[in-house]
Design a protein that fits this description.
By secondary structure, the protein is of the alpha/beta class.
């Protein structure tokens, strides 16, 4: 047979006559994207994603319908081609109403598959829930007690009644599996022979060690303290986070093969240069465990304590002499933790804060709990000097404040009121006004003017080859869930470095969203039954003052099942396989560039097995052409024209009333999830484990690992 000769991306290729460019490219293993192409259908050319550049022609050509000709010179991935594909994707996405992932999942800095693990809990599958959580976060027992819950603030259940209790439910499977005595220990890849040193056993360091060990790299954690946990152990009291919970989750990491060297301070006991010589890569995960100072006269007097040091002593069960009259200065969680700990040591405590209660950065529920425990609050005051009280204790001078113009934080700046000074007699003053990072272990690493480590935003590399950094020492004092997410990102980048790949960090992944709560169509939650949020049991306030026992006892199995079943399963069932999402990630689509009118929410639930969501449809025409050309049913068709064109069941009937022949193949052929099965889970992370591709995005995340009995 006579073959045609042509040039594809600089390579001479021969093929039989009659082949399209798309067929020829696929035969050569050259990637050309398409959304409207179906092997058993004639080329349609509606999506225009498959365009290529042909030398000698002014316009781009659709690869799916253009035949290869003798001598043709084809460029499948030129700058012009990629720009055109990006624009086409942006046009499609600008009229695509839906969510790739639920808003709770996108709001979670650790990227936990929240709808997925909630569904497992609701089904009584606690171990599967734990396994799913641990794909993206190794410390659910800890985080399920202390997370500030950014996921709950965007939960769409609040459009009906109250947000899902995601934080307490994250804790539930961790506690349940731990209590069963059959702990889940993630499998690890065969050893790579590479060794990674992690400096700091806080949340970022523990997370990086966990994932690096999963990938087969031997991790050794250097920790200055005698136990792991960082500020989780030495800055959060046990009534909020019991020490046995930390110990248990660290033990799991140890059982995976991670090594810990405690009481070893890099910078004192050995240098960073020594560590670099002995290990293939280093991750600096130093915590913010140095206290901030007021900078007022008398701060060094006996009786003045700093919140971080005070909480550390309490955590280590060290003797902590404290008087009856205690004032805590500050408005963050460290201040609240210090005050509530002092109460448990027998003190009468008042918290003094220089702004109003509305500006306090601590959790609102912590303020409520403190008031229940008898702690007082005084606002718009700050200490200006501290003296010894002749009668014993301290004489602290406070000045009243008023709020002026906003500062760099966006909050109104407190300004002293002249002549408003007053002196208070106290036994102890606990200063809890901020934390700083001890950078001494990071010798030779570039630092910012704020005393933090400079690391690349994407791959966390520092100026030293093979040295990465993340956590508080890069971000400044931050919430644990952010540090966990950073630890996982570091593990991805370090794995790329050790594997000899470009160190790009986690590849970007496109996520379509309906927007914030106020923009979500009311139809999304229409018909949802109002079900009250479950409330975990709490220790009585008077009993709390006598003990450091955990205040919140968590959900019972019955409560957990009911609360998890309140989830509306936001997100797309087709997200793991959606080609529109894959291509948007690959080409960096930004549909906001073309924002304008968008189709309305339109969901058809009439069919017993299939959901049709017309608001997700991109009008590729595959379903209509299968219905007409393959099955001869004409069950689906186009209505209206232009921008108003839509695909509808015949005669605009409910999907349940059309000819069912071919519907299964239509569901499986839909490239964007407009047609899905009702039984399909919204789980986005249930696919097999795959490392992120250093050269481009992938739908699989680092922690996508599944057991054989899972779908």
């Amino acid at each position: 047979m006579v073959e045609i000769s042509f040039i594809l991306d600089g390579k001479e290729v021969r093929i039989a006559p009659g082949a399209t460019i798309l067929q020829a490219a696929w035969e050569q293993g050259v990637f050309i994207p398409t959304l409207c192409h179906q092997q058993q259908l004639k080329p349609f050319g509606s999506c225009f994603i498959c365009v290529v550049e042909l030398e000698g022609r002014p316009n781009l050509a659709p690869a799916c319908s253009t035949l290869v000709s003798e001598g043709m010179v084809i460029h499948s991935a030129s700058e012009k081609v990629e720009a055109a594909r990006r624009t086409c994707l942006e046009l499609l996405l600008s009229d695509h109403l839906g969510d790739c992932e639920g808003p709770c999942m996108t709001a979670c800095p650790a990227g936990i598959d929240i709808p997925g693990f909630l569904k497992h809990i609701a089904s009584g599958e606690d171990r599967k829930a734990l396994e799913l959580i641990k794909r993206n976060m190794p410390l659910p027992g800890i985080l399920g007690r202390i997370c500030p819950r950014p996921c709950e603030t965007v939960c769409r259940r609040s459009l009906v009644d109250e947000p899902i209790a995601i934080c307490q439910l994250k804790r539930y499977p961790a506690d349940s599996v731990a209590d069963s005595g059959e702990e889940y220990i993630p499998e690890t890849d065969p050893p790579t022979g590479k060794r990674v040193a992690i400096i700091g056993a806080g949340p970022a360091g523990l997370t990086a060690a966990y994932y690096l060990q999963i990938m087969g790299h031997q991790s050794t954690v250097f920790e200055a303290h005698s136990a792991a946990g960082g500020m989780m152990r030495y800055g959060i009291p046990s009534y909020r986070l019991p020490r046995e919970v930390i110990d248990h989750e660290v033990t799991v990491i140890e059982k995976m093969g991670v090594r810990f060297l405690f009481n070893t301070r890099v910078g004192d006991d050995l240098t960073l240069a020594q560590v670099r010589r002995d290990y293939d890569a280093v991750f600096l995960a130093l915590g913010a465990q140095r206290a901030g100072w007021l900078g007022v006269p008398g701060e060094a007097l006996e009786g003045v304590m700093h919140g971080i040091g005070f909480l550390g002593k309490v955590s280590r069960d060290e003797a902590t002499p404290i008087g009856k009259r205690v004032i805590v200065v500050g408005g963050g969680n460290v201040a609240l933790d210090s005050a509530r700990s002092a109460v448990r040591l027998g003190a009468e405590v008042t918290i003094v804060y220089r702004r109003t209660e509305e500006e306090m950065p601590c959790w609102e529920e912590e303020v409520s709990a403190a008031r229940e425990e008898g702690i007082g609050f005084e606002f718009l005051k700050t200490p200006t000097r501290i003296d010894e009280d002749p009668e014993g204790g301290l004489a602290v001078t406070f000045v009243s404040m008023e709020l002026g113009e906003p500062d760099e934080s966006g909050r109104r700046r407190p300004v002293p009121i002249p002549g408003s000074e007053q002196v208070r007699q106290v036994d102890n003053l606990i200063v809890a006004i901020g934390q700083r990072v001890d950078i001494r272990p990071a010798e030779g690493v570039e630092q910012s003017v704020f005393g933090t480590i400079l690391a690349d935003e994407d791959n966390l590399l520092t100026n030293l080859p093979g040295v990465f950094s993340g956590g508080d020492c890069v971000l400044g004092p931050d919430i644990v869930v952010n540090l966990i997410g950073m630890g996982r990102r570091a593990a991805v980048a370090i794995d790329q470095y050790l594997s000899g790949n470009p160190v790009a960090g986690e590849p970007p992944q496109y996520n379509q969203s309906m927007g914030p709560l106020e923009q979500v169509p009311t139809e999304v939650s229409r018909g949802t039954e109002i079900i009250p949020r479950q409330k975990p049991e709490h220790m009585a306030p008077e009993a709390r003052r006598q003990s450091f026992a955990e205040v919140e006892t968590g959900f019972s199995p019955e409560q957990a099942r009911q609360e998890a079943s309140r989830c509306q399963e936001c997100g797309c069932r087709a997200a793991p396989d959606c080609r529109l999402r894959q291509y948007a990630s690959r080409y960096g689509a930004k549909p906001e560039r073309l924002a304008g009118a968008c189709r309305e929410f339109d969901r058809d639930l009439s069919h017993s097995e299939i959901v049709y969501e017309a608001h997700k449809c991109i009008q590729c025409g595959i379903c209509v052409r299968l219905s007409e050309e393959v099955f001869g049913t004409s069950s689906l068709g186009f209505v209206k024209r232009g921008f108003a064109a839509r695909i509808k069941p015949a005669l605009d009937r409910p999907l349940a009333e059309v000819n069912p022949e071919g519907l299964q193949e239509i569901v499986e052929s839909c490239p964007v999830g407009a047609f899905t099965y009702k039984t399909d889970p919204v789980h986005c992370l249930e696919s097999a484990f795959k490392r992120p591709d250093a050269t481009g995005p992938t739908l699989c995340r680092l922690s996508d690992r599944t057991s054989e009995d899972e779908h």
